[in-house]
Design a protein that fits this description.
The complex is a heterodimer of chains A (347) and B (604).
Chain A lengths: L4 H12 L1 H18 L11 E4 L2 E3 L22 H11 L4 E3 L39 H37 L1 H15 L3 H11 L4 H12 L1 H15 L2 H8 L4 H38 L10 H10 L4 H29 L9
Antiparallel strand pairs in A: 1-2, 1-3
Chain B lengths: L2 H23 L27 E6 L18 H6 L5 E3 L6 E3 L2 E6 L5 E6 L13 H12 L6 H9 L1 E8 L2 E6 L6 H5 L7 H4 L6 H4 L11 E7 L3 E6 L19 E6 L3 H9 L5 E3 L3 H7 L4 H4 L3 E7 L7 E5 L9 H9 L3 H6 L7 E2 L22 H10 L3 E2 L5 E3 L2 E2 L1 E6 L5 H13 L3 E6 L2 H9 L5 E5 L9 H4 L18 H12 L3 H18 L2 E3 L1 E2 L2 E7 L2 E2 L27 E2 L1 H13 L7 E4 L6
Parallel strand pairs in B: 1-10, 12-26, 18-19, 18-20
Antiparallel strand pairs in B: 2-3, 4-5, 5-7, 6-7, 8-9, 9-10, 11-23, 12-23, 13-20, 13-21, 14-22, 15-16, 16-17, 24-25
Helix pairs in contact in B: 11-13, 17-18
Chain lengths: 347, 604
């Protein structure tokens, strides 16, 4: 693929803003780690060597304990299996991921009660939450759900916002007027109350939550797109295209939209950040995804309710701050990068 | 006024005279022996001081303050219901009968009729005296279709034959059949203020949603801030305030129930002295969150642990038999064997709670001690499920055709989330998937009554004697707004319940109750979880309690009315200690840190 020189220039400019660029690398790494979380945070082993056979339990269906000569038919406890193999000192071995817990299982003991503080020995690197679930696992899997939520939300709201905003700006007239009023009315619906009401009647799943957010949050983008389209439509090149007999579709997709890209791109990071904080807030209030889904909001709530277990609130807040700040830096750099008026300063 | 109208009034007047004279014609039999009780020990402190404001919280705002009809059975209904006196009550510890609205009572030999002499001093909060007519109207009220309470309609038609008025202050209530627990049956028939309601009409439910009705209890509703708070005030000239069993009780002048949805917020409110007590019954609070409280260490607030010995609410999983998966009894039994309650009690709950075995626990002889809850047992789950033709799917969850053993568990309290999340993880090992659904209290209860749930995680409040008809009789199955939330529909069960309700001998009733409990166990649509068996609280040191701070079956130190017999309201405020403490809180002066444990009623 060959990028046109203008885009290359924008990317170069983006890379030259170091703060944003490194944030982007960091965020990319976090995304990568989160999407392959099963490989390093999991109660399933990475690899089991048993009686001359090699098993890879990470992905795929669960392997019952009797696969490995244990007496039960439910999912193998690989941590115990590892200990057992070590005691037997035979050829069999188990390789566990770095954090050998998943986000749901509770590490409960007979004599102590959770939350357990961070411990290298137990491999709870950030401790556990109030019912003994590993903090690292909860954080990473929670992040993954959060990011999936906000990306889904981003795609759908932008699709609606761009399409509608573009049409409003391009067609203008009654169509524009009608949707302007509709959006104004729709915007005044108290969004949080709606969510609370819905959440008290049905248990919101990820799709339902995205849907609700889309239904009440698609308006933001339309305004910007409408103004941009209005502005671009009045430009000479659009007139020229029209004079050449270009169809409306062609004008919108080939002339106006490419010129609006910089605007759209600038909004992406902030919209992602908005999605993350939105879901976290809802979970914090208890109206988000149903328990025991790992979620930052729920961890924040646990943390603030259990300030004596400071590792819960500390690690959640740190994670939240790191993600939010890096997204903000990326957004800032993108805006700078796509700003056509780089050197034209007025004095 | 037209002549015609005058004439009709005149005729109606005559008719009314005529009917009342027929009633009055009933003669009180001579052979009955009036009883009363003024010798029972008092359980309140007669020297308690009156005055002060008590600040309490409620988790959700009631959907209505009407005590009958749709949505009237929420948690605040208890307060409303108990704020009116009954004919008689029971002594909280000895369980002997005590006078309330009736000063004297008598039994007929047929064990069907109970006579009452009403207290001539009894008054409604809006002035008029409580008379026999209010009881006559009370029965009419309970039988009226307009109150939209099928349970009450049915109960007062099937169980009570009639109410006889002898004069303005003497009545008899006649049951349809001899009953060994006759006082228990008739005492719930409350007088209703006819002067207030007038003729009942179809719009009863809507009309009285937020109308404050006159009552006979010690408090009246003073203010309702919808969605926010309800304030009760003490009636200064309450007619019963100096009676023996009411002396030293219902002491505070004002009680404010504020809606605070979340327990941990209530705790913060308490620490900031915006609420007067906080329940520490939950293990996580007693053992952790309230462990090193500054206000406790400095002695401003006391911790108090009280062991009870009372009827235990059946807390656990209520499986909806109308759902496809739960139609099979084996699957229901497997559900019980998949719940690792024992480990839950030992680990997360720190051994404070105990396992509940039976739907009827703590009812003395009525409890069948043979019944033991099903234990967590994966081989048993496997045996039961394979017997019914299920097999484990790829993820270890049982499947059969298109069905998957994945059920939704609906619950209300945030503090239960951790417990259910624990059980969910353990159940996965047994091949049962639980999906947790937390709903707002009112919404959850509505969905239970409408039978929309798969599994309800809840407990019912308990009565004086075990009751089964509402929860397990097929008459109440498969239709909304009844308490049979398991949709239990079993002819043998119906038969047992019918005979239980008909039986007049105590021994026979006990036998039948045992059989019913066995049947409940066998049907397996109720999976008992745990019982608490104590309560604990932390409260500001200016709140005072009697020497024995609560009764055998209390639920809290600060229950305004306590159980259905209204035995609560024992606490009072000492203004001097309050002043002293508040000053000390400013200057930082310390008092002795107190943690009290009361074993008076501890069960072994």
């Amino acid at each position: 693929m060959r990028l046109d020189p203008l885009t290359l220039k924008k990317i170069r400019r983006f890379r030259s803003i170091k703060r944003g660029y490194y944030s982007w690398l960091l965020f990319g790494l976090m995304l990568l780690l989160a999407f392959f979380a099963e490989l390093w945070i999991n109660n399933r082993a990475l690899l089991v060597y048993y009686e001359g056979q090699i098993y890879f339990p990470t992905y795929g269906t669960m392997m019952p304990g009797n696969t490995f000569g244990l007496e039960y038919a439910y999912e193998t406890n690989y941590r115990d299996l590892q200990k057992k193999f070590q005691q037997e000192a035979g050829d069999n071995f188990v390789i566990m991921p770095l954090v050998p817990y998943n986000a749901f299982e509770m590490d409960l003991r007979e004599t102590e009660f959770p939350p357990f503080p961070p411990s290298w020995k137990d491999r709870h690197y950030l401790g556990t939450d109030t019912i003994g679930r590993d903090m690292v696992a909860r954080l990473v899997y929670g992040f993954r759900i959060c990011i999936i939520f906000s990306l889904l939300l981003l795609v759908v709201t932008f699709a609606i916002g761009i399409a509608l905003g573009c049409l409003m700006g391009y067609w203008g007239g009654k169509f524009d007027l009608f949707f302007q009023r509709l959006i104004e009315i729709w915007s005044s619906v108290p969004f949080l109350y709606i969510i609370m009401i819905i959440a008290s009647i049905v248990v919101p799943s990820l799709t339902i939550l995205v849907l609700i957010y889309v239904v009440f949050g698609w308006m933001g983008m339309t305004w910007y797109m409408r103004t941009t389209t209005y502005k671009e439509k009045a430009r000479d090149y659009v007139m020229a295209a029209k004079a050449l007999g270009a169809s409306n579709t062609r004008i919108i997709f080939h002339h106006i939209l490419p010129n609006a890209v910089s605007l759209i791109v600038t909004f992406v990071p902030f919209s992602v950040a908005g999605g993350i904080s939105g879901l976290t807030a809802l979970d914090y209030l208890g109206f988000g995804l149903p328990p025991p889904t790992p979620s930052w909001g729920e961890l924040l709530q646990q943390g603030t309710n259990n300030l004596h277990a400071v590792w819960i609130v500390a690690s959640t807040v740190t994670a939240l701050v790191v993600v939010m700040v890096s997204i903000t830096f990326i957004g800032e750099a993108v805006r700078e990068g796509f700003d056509p008026k780089l050197h034209s300063t007025f004095e | 006024m037209s002549v015609k109208k005058l004439l009709s009034y005149w005729i109606m007047g005559w008719l009314l005279c005529f009917t009342t004279s027929i009633d009055a014609a009933e003669k009180l039999p001579n052979h009955i022996k009036w009883e009363t009780n003024d010798t029972a020990p008092v359980w309140a402190d007669p020297n308690a001081k009156k005055g002060g404001t008590f600040r309490d919280t409620i988790p959700t705002f009631p959907l209505t303050i009407r005590m009958f009809g749709p949505d009237s059975n929420g948690s605040f209904a208890r307060v409303l219901r108990r704020n009116q006196l009954r004919l008689i009550s029971y002594h909280p510890d000895t369980e002997e009968i005590l006078p309330q609205l009736a000063t004297h009572w008598a039994f007929d030999d047929d064990r069907k009729t109970m006579y009452f002499k009403l207290d001539k001093r009894a008054r409604w909060s809006d002035g008029p005296l409580v008379t026999a007519d209010d009881f006559v109207f009370g029965l009419e009220f309970m039988r009226s279709k307009h109150i939209v309470s099928p349970w009450y309609n049915n109960f007062y038609t099937k169980e009570i034959e009639k109410l006889v008025k002898y004069d303005d202050h003497t009545i008899a209530i006649v049951a349809t059949k001899p009953d060994p627990d006759l006082p228990e049956l008739v005492k719930d028939l409350l007088p209703q203020p006819k002067h207030f309601y007038g003729e009942l009409t179809k719009d009863f439910v809507r009309k009285y949603n937020w109308t404050i009705k006159p009552n006979t209890g010690p408090y009246f509703i003073d203010k309702i801030k919808k969605g926010k708070s309800i304030t009760l005030k003490r009636k200064k000239d309450w007619w019963a305030k100096d009676l023996k069993y009411f002396k030293g009780r219902f002491n505070v002048d004002k009680i404010i129930f504020t809606v605070v949805r979340d327990q941990s917020t209530v705790f913060e409110y308490f620490k900031k002295n915006k609420v007067d007590y906080f329940s520490l019954t939950l293990p996580s609070y007693w053992h952790e969150k309230a462990k090193n409280l500054d206000i406790h260490q400095k002695g401003y607030a006391k911790k108090h642990w009280f062991y009870t010995n009372s009827r235990e609410p059946p807390i656990g999983f209520w499986l909806n038999e109308d759902k496809e998966v739960f139609k099979d009894r084996n699957v229901r039994h497997a559900f019980a064997h998949a719940m690792n309650v024992e480990k839950l009690l030992k680990t997360l709950l720190r051994g404070d709670y105990a396992r509940l075995h039976n739907v009827t626990t703590g009812f003395g002889k009525y409890t069948n001690p043979q019944i033991r809850a099903r234990n967590f047992d994966i081989p048993k789950v496997e045996a039961l499920m394979t017997q019914s033709g299920w097999k484990r799917g790829n993820d270890g969850i049982w499947i059969k055709g298109k069905m998957r053993y994945s059920v939704r568990v609906t619950y209300t309290s945030d503090t239960h989330t951790a417990r259910l999340a624990f059980l969910k993880e353990e159940a996965k090992k047994a091949g049962v998937e639980l999906n947790l659904q937390r709903l707002d209290g009112s919404a959850a209860f509505k969905s239970f009554l409408e039978k929309k749930h798969d599994v309800a995680w809840m407990g019912w409040s308990t009565g004086f004697r075990p009751q089964y008809w509402g929860s397990f009789h097929s008459v109440n199955a498969h239709k909304p707004q009844t308490n049979n939330i398991t949709n239990t529909d079993d002819p043998e069960m119906d038969q047992l319940i019918d005979s239980y309700r008909k039986a007049s001998q105590t021994s026979e009733r006990i036998k039948l109750a045992h059989a019913i409990q066995e049947k409940v166990h066998e049907i397996g649509s109720f999976v008992p979880a745990y019982k608490v068996g104590y309560f604990r609280a932390i409260y500001w040191r200016w709140w005072q309690l009697p020497r024995v701070p609560a009764t055998r079956s209390s639920e809290s130190f600060f229950d305004l009315f306590a159980d259905d017999y209204g035995t609560g309201g024992l606490f009072w405020l000492d203004p001097e200690i309050k002043k002293e403490t508040q000053q000390a809180m400013k200057t930082g002066k310390r008092f002795d840190s107190k943690t009290l444990i009361d074993n008076t009623f501890k069960a072994n």
